[in-house]
Amino acid sequence: MKLEQPLTPKQIRSHLQTLIAEIQQETDWDLQRNLDSVEITLGEAPTFGPTYGVIRTKKKITFGQWFNDLSPETYQKTLWEHVLIREALAFFMEDWLLFHPSFSLSHYILNVVALSKMQQNYLGREFDSRAYNIRYRFIYFEAEERIEVNKKSFLEILYFLSVSITSKKVPFKLILDTFHFFVNDFDEIVNKELEILEQFNDYLSFKPEQIIAPIRMRKITLKVLKGILQQGISATLSSLEQLLDLDYTLISKELVKLANIHNAKFWVEKNFYKLGLHYYTIIIKIKESKRQTTEIIEKDLLENPYIDIIYQGSPVSPRYFYALMLCPHVLANSLEKRMEKRQNQGFLDYFEIKPLKDRIFMTALVEKNFKPTIESFQELLEGKKECIKLVTWNNSFLQEELPHKFTFNEKRLLKFISIYRSHSLTNPSLYSGFGIELQEFLKENDIDFNQIENFLSFMNKLRNEAIEKDLINFRLVLTPSVISLKDLLIIKIKGDNETAEFNKLIDQLAIFSWIGYNITFDGMLVRVMGLDSNHKIAKMLSDFIVERGFEVETFTVRQKILRYVPLDELYSFEAHLWKI
Cβ contacts of residue 295 below 8 Å, gap of 6+? Predict the structure, then answer.
């Protein structure tokens, strides 16, 4: 889409006319409103949220004047293009949905549909960074929503939905038609947004076997992937060209495939040695899955300020809690005493709070079509079928050393590390983190997010400092489908992890698109994304492990809480110690 900046109301109307005509040609949809009867103006409009960029009524659309102040031009064009497509699509949505005073899901879905249609213009070209910038605008938490669990679940599903739709290249017409089907299936939609979204999401989801299947990847793409794993965050087109002896343009195309199709990105891993913190894994099994009991345990966990993610048992395993925390030893001891008290009070069946010896992540790939049947997975497990197994992260490469002593001048650096979560494979300057805290952080430092050059200069400086001081590392993540990864299978294995049989088991189980191992001093927790403990494949895995002489317990959890951990507030700069 050719956009001459700055856009005027007349130019906006012209673009909308073109887009509406284009949508009419590609669909059988009827127009619900006439553009000629709608006034187009520039003025004040929200910068974030489901209707970011506009104030929309039946007779008037005010586009944000702030669009024309954005920089650089590529970023400005990306947001203009998305909003123009979204507003053109809005002319095909019925008034009762579009202007419903108590139903915002329609606005969010329009953003997702517009993202899908926009992607058509970038086939074969990098779209990952554009999609990220757009998602960051419309999938946004207001400050007062930080503790609203349902709102968080709603926005997390939307995020996963939008990522999967772009990676799967789901046609925009199918998305909106499917949404209309589910909405019309409800007699009453008020207070039903999360339920409608969950059903809509489930309908578009992969089956569990498809989610966990090894990732199919061409040889050339795999070669580039291995190069990235070898060079890590420092990988550039030039360095990969020299390492792999491949054409610069070809490598660029393969990076786009990895980002757009396989959702490849770098995930920030904190160097716990340098921070002076320690990883602990937490498993709690309550005696009864009563609301009162779950609320008590959840409250106990939340009182520990170092716990960021809490998983709770799924419907097939309702009595479980699972969490991972990075904390001082004394905090783990304190939580252990609290759980002993709860066990004595009769709330718990058992609990485990164990330090981690290692964390390993692996991914399996195939070069040919793989039919995700039980038989095929059994053959992979027994070694009768081959797959390529890559280690994407292993804590063991970190050197045990004395912790860094932070000064007050590094308070900003600690806050940056707390906020920063991941970034794009194709655009190393594209930051992903905790949205509210990032906005507050920028305000504290007089940085305007809309002035991208200043924003990137500020963030790059802090990232480089964190890397130079060896405070953070990066793990490559590939997720073939994140659309319905609400189930996380946990396989608790007890046994001597110093034996050859134990290490062999780690390799044997690595037959999935994503698998993680939390190694403790008396066994390990194996995590498989997208599978529940009642599935036949879970039973197959359990039997396979037991046959090799290990004790096994399996259960399924779902993420209940994700929260920000403010390391800069938890550190005493005077004592050079973590607060308890």
Answer: none
- Nearest to 526, CA basis, from 568, 484, 497, 486: 497
Strands 488-494 and 551-562: antiparallel
User: Do 426 and 129 contact (CB within 8 A), yes or no?
Assistant: yes
Q: Rounded to 10 degrees, what is the CA torsion of 446, 420, 202, 111?
A: 30
Q: Please give the helix or strand (H or E) that residue 362 lies within, else none.
A: strand 358-366
Mean pLDDT of the chain: 91
Tens digits of per-residue pLDDT, 265-313? 899 999 999 999 999 999 999 998 788 999 999 999 999 999 999 999 9
In which residue ranges of the chain is CATH 3.30.70.260 found?
Answer: 277-356+563-567
First to last CA, the chain: 55
What values do phi and psi take at 452, rounded to 5?
-60, -40
The domain defined by 277-356+563-567 folds into Alpha-Beta Plaits (3.30.70)
pLDDT in tens, 452-488: 889 999 999 999 999 999 999 999 998 754 444 578 9
What is the model's pLDDT at position 145?
42
Report residue 31 as tokens: 């127009």
Amino acid (one-letter) located at 506 = I
Q: Token pair of 517, please?
A: 């191992």
Half-sphere exposure for 115 (CA within 13 Å, toward CB): 34
Return d(Cα 427, Cα 423) in angstroms, integer. 8
CA angle 480, 483, 485 (to 5 degrees): 85
The residues facing 556 across adjacent strands are 489
Cα 330 to Cα 327: distance, rounded to the nearest angstrom = 8
Q: What is the pLDDT of residues 419-435, one digit of tens each?
A: 999 988 887 667 888 88
Alpha helices in 389-472 (DSSP H): 411-419, 435-444, 452-468
